[in-house]
Design brief:
This protein has three helices and five strands; from the N terminus they run H-E-E-E-H-E-H-E. By secondary structure, the protein is of the alpha/beta class. It has two domains: 29 residues; 87 residues, Nucleotidyltransferase, domain 5 (2-Layer Sandwich), CATH 3.30.420. Strands 3-2-1-4-5 form a five-stranded mixed beta sheet. A hairpin with a 5-residue loop joins strand 1 and strand 2. Helix 2 packs parallel to helix 3. The longest helix has 25 residues. The protein is elongated. The model has no long low-confidence stretch (mean pLDDT 81).
């Protein structure tokens, strides 16, 4: 004795949209990680206690000073005149956050001084010097 009617096939689940979303998220996170690494730069920061903030605030202008004295903003190598111009633009846009200088601990003081003079000439009243905590790896 047969109960019920003819069996219907089970509902098939289409995985294609889920795979598409997964790949899009993967691409997003890979690109975001690359962009974050570029703004960090490869510098060994000076070891100081500094402010004890757990989260870094987003800066308007980040200047990287390498150990050889070269200066970077983003991916581009710049000079003091370009830093002055970028600081003027930031002040004109009304960026309220102080520029951040990420100087290598082996960078010449003359390069750091040139960045400070350029930022001052651009209208930045102060800047933050990024440091590494004493107990950080």
């Amino acid at each position: 004795m047969k109960f019920g009617g003819p069996r219907r096939p089970l509902l098939e689940l289409d995985m294609t949209p889920m795979i598409d979303v997964t790949f899009l998220l993967l691409i997003f996170f890979l690109v975001t990680a690359q962009m974050a690494a570029r703004t960090r730069g490869e510098v060994r920061l000076p070891i100081e206690s500094g402010e004890q903030e757990d989260r870094a605030s987003q800066a308007g202008l980040v200047v990287i000073v390498r150990a050889d004295g070269s200066m970077l903003v983003g991916d581009a190598e710049v000079g003091p005149a370009a830093i002055t111009e970028l600081a003027k633009r930031a002040v004109a846009r009304g960026v309220s956050k102080a520029p951040v200088v990420r100087a290598d601990r082996d960078a010449p003081v003359a390069a750091l001084n040139a960045v400070a003079i350029a930022l001052r000439a651009g209208g930045a009243g102060a800047f933050q010097l990024a440091t590494q905590r004493e107990n950080a790896p």
